[in-house]
Design goal:
The chain is of the alpha+beta class and about 130 residues long. The protein has one domain. Helix content is about 30%, strand content about 25%. The chain contains three helices and four strands, in the order ααββββα. Strands 3-2-1-4 form a four-stranded antiparallel sheet, with helices on one face. β1 and β2 form a beta hairpin. α1 (about 1-10) crosses α3 and α2 packs across α3 (about 105-125). The radius of gyration is 15 Å and the shape is globular. The mean pLDDT is about 95.
Amino acid sequence: MTKLREVLEASWDAKTAYLSVSQAGNPALGQCYPTSRVLQLYYPDMEIVEGAVKTTDGLEKHFWNLVIIEDHEYHIDLTWQQFPPGSIVQNYKIRERNTLNDNQPTIERVQLLHDRVAKKLAAADPISV
Protein backbone atom coordinates (compact mmCIF):
# COMPACT_ATOMS: atom_id res chain seq x y z
CA MET A 1 0.00 0.00 0.00
CA THR A 2 2.99 2.32 0.42
CA LYS A 3 3.49 2.63 -3.34
CA LEU A 4 -0.23 3.20 -3.90
CA ARG A 5 -0.20 5.95 -1.27
CA GLU A 6 2.80 7.63 -2.93
CA VAL A 7 1.14 7.45 -6.35
CA LEU A 8 -2.16 8.80 -5.00
CA GLU A 9 -0.40 11.75 -3.37
CA ALA A 10 1.56 12.45 -6.56
CA SER A 11 -1.72 12.45 -8.52
CA TRP A 12 -3.57 15.05 -6.43
CA ASP A 13 -4.16 18.57 -7.68
CA ALA A 14 -6.97 21.13 -7.82
CA LYS A 15 -8.73 19.12 -10.56
CA THR A 16 -9.19 16.15 -8.22
CA ALA A 17 -10.00 18.25 -5.12
CA TYR A 18 -13.47 19.08 -3.86
CA LEU A 19 -14.53 22.43 -5.38
CA SER A 20 -11.00 22.70 -6.84
CA VAL A 21 -9.74 23.79 -3.43
CA SER A 22 -6.00 24.13 -3.00
CA GLN A 23 -3.75 25.45 -0.28
CA ALA A 24 0.03 25.79 -0.36
CA GLY A 25 1.62 23.17 1.85
CA ASN A 26 -1.60 21.15 2.16
CA PRO A 27 -1.90 18.89 -0.92
CA ALA A 28 -4.40 16.54 0.80
CA LEU A 29 -6.98 19.31 1.20
CA GLY A 30 -10.18 18.35 -0.63
CA GLN A 31 -8.81 14.97 -1.72
CA CYS A 32 -10.49 12.73 0.86
CA TYR A 33 -13.48 11.45 -1.11
CA PRO A 34 -11.80 10.68 -4.44
CA THR A 35 -8.89 9.11 -2.57
CA SER A 36 -11.19 6.87 -0.54
CA ARG A 37 -13.07 5.82 -3.70
CA VAL A 38 -9.88 5.00 -5.61
CA LEU A 39 -8.49 3.09 -2.64
CA GLN A 40 -11.71 1.05 -2.59
CA LEU A 41 -11.18 0.19 -6.27
CA TYR A 42 -7.80 -1.35 -5.42
CA TYR A 43 -9.01 -2.94 -2.17
CA PRO A 44 -12.67 -3.91 -2.71
CA ASP A 45 -13.13 -5.14 0.88
CA MET A 46 -12.64 -1.60 2.15
CA GLU A 47 -15.65 0.49 2.99
CA ILE A 48 -15.94 4.26 2.68
CA VAL A 49 -16.54 6.12 5.90
CA GLU A 50 -18.15 9.56 6.19
CA GLY A 51 -17.49 11.49 9.35
CA ALA A 52 -17.29 14.85 11.02
CA VAL A 53 -13.91 16.14 12.13
CA LYS A 54 -13.67 18.84 14.77
CA THR A 55 -10.92 21.32 13.95
CA THR A 56 -10.05 24.75 15.30
CA ASP A 57 -12.39 26.16 12.63
CA GLY A 58 -15.41 23.96 13.51
CA LEU A 59 -16.77 20.72 12.08
CA GLU A 60 -15.70 19.52 8.65
CA LYS A 61 -17.02 16.61 6.60
CA HIS A 62 -14.40 13.99 5.89
CA PHE A 63 -14.10 10.62 4.14
CA TRP A 64 -11.71 7.74 4.67
CA ASN A 65 -11.64 3.95 4.43
CA LEU A 66 -12.30 1.16 6.85
CA VAL A 67 -11.77 -2.57 6.67
CA ILE A 68 -13.27 -5.02 9.15
CA ILE A 69 -11.21 -8.09 9.96
CA GLU A 70 -12.48 -10.57 12.53
CA ASP A 71 -14.91 -8.01 14.00
CA HIS A 72 -12.18 -5.37 14.40
CA GLU A 73 -12.39 -2.04 12.56
CA TYR A 74 -9.19 -0.77 10.97
CA HIS A 75 -9.39 2.83 9.76
CA ILE A 76 -7.21 3.85 6.81
CA ASP A 77 -7.03 7.57 6.19
CA LEU A 78 -4.60 8.70 3.51
CA THR A 79 -5.70 12.36 3.72
CA TRP A 80 -5.81 13.04 7.46
CA GLN A 81 -2.79 15.34 7.16
CA GLN A 82 -5.08 18.01 5.71
CA PHE A 83 -6.32 18.77 9.23
CA PRO A 84 -4.45 20.81 11.85
CA PRO A 85 -2.91 19.04 14.86
CA GLY A 86 -5.44 18.41 17.60
CA SER A 87 -8.33 17.67 15.19
CA ILE A 88 -10.54 14.78 16.25
CA VAL A 89 -13.27 12.66 14.68
CA GLN A 90 -16.60 13.51 16.29
CA ASN A 91 -18.68 10.81 14.61
CA TYR A 92 -18.72 8.59 11.55
CA LYS A 93 -20.79 6.12 9.61
CA ILE A 94 -20.00 3.56 6.95
CA ARG A 95 -21.41 4.61 3.58
CA GLU A 96 -23.57 2.11 1.76
CA ARG A 97 -21.44 1.25 -1.27
CA ASN A 98 -24.41 0.61 -3.55
CA THR A 99 -26.02 3.99 -2.91
CA LEU A 100 -23.19 6.52 -2.95
CA ASN A 101 -25.17 8.78 -5.30
CA ASP A 102 -22.10 10.59 -6.58
CA ASN A 103 -22.90 13.60 -8.74
CA GLN A 104 -21.27 14.06 -12.15
CA PRO A 105 -18.44 16.38 -10.99
CA THR A 106 -17.56 13.89 -8.24
CA ILE A 107 -17.60 10.97 -10.68
CA GLU A 108 -15.27 12.92 -12.96
CA ARG A 109 -12.85 13.78 -10.11
CA VAL A 110 -12.73 10.13 -9.00
CA GLN A 111 -12.21 8.93 -12.57
CA LEU A 112 -9.43 11.47 -13.18
CA LEU A 113 -7.63 10.43 -10.01
CA HIS A 114 -8.07 6.75 -10.82
CA ASP A 115 -6.76 7.23 -14.37
CA ARG A 116 -3.68 9.07 -13.08
CA VAL A 117 -2.99 6.43 -10.44
CA ALA A 118 -3.42 3.54 -12.87
CA LYS A 119 -1.05 5.19 -15.36
CA LYS A 120 1.61 5.84 -12.72
CA LEU A 121 1.33 2.34 -11.30
CA ALA A 122 1.62 0.81 -14.77
CA ALA A 123 4.81 2.80 -15.35
CA ALA A 124 6.24 1.90 -11.93
CA ASP A 125 8.76 -0.82 -11.28
CA PRO A 126 6.53 -3.89 -10.63
CA ILE A 127 8.85 -5.11 -7.89
CA SER A 128 8.35 -1.92 -5.85
CA VAL A 129 4.55 -1.85 -6.18
